[in-house]
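Fold this sequence, please.
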Amino acid sequence: MRPQTGKSMQVGEELPALTKAISQRRIDCYSGVRPHSIHTDPEWARKKGFKAPLAQALMSTAYVSQMMVQLLGEGFVKGGEISAAFVKPVFAGDILTVHGRIKSRETAGVNTRVTVEVWCENEQGVKTMVGTASGLEHDLRASE
């Protein structure tokens, strides 16, 4: 799939949403299984007051990165930045949807830095993460 570019999208336009089922297996793969962990030990998580094990917050950031790579490709891999606040927990069993809206496009040398307002929501529509992500949209003419 060829990545979309900020040039093909206008400021204010929403990116295609990315939906992820947050299974315990996915959390275990990300966290590494260990006892007495609120991430991988369901009994321990309940003992600590949570309804289920929590996903690592950085899993949400990884999904934002996936969305940004789909948008900018190498321009995010080599020049990407994320600033995020984790505002609510994500639990095993949640369905997480990553959203993005083009916030700005600014000249950065021979490139354009595309900044995207990003947020994650659980299946109830509760925001779990908010922030911005940006990357470089390469000017193909500059490399000719």
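The first strand starts at residue 18 and ends at 21. Residues 6-22+56-143 form a domain with the Thiol Ester Dehydrase; Chain A fold (CATH 3.10.129.10).
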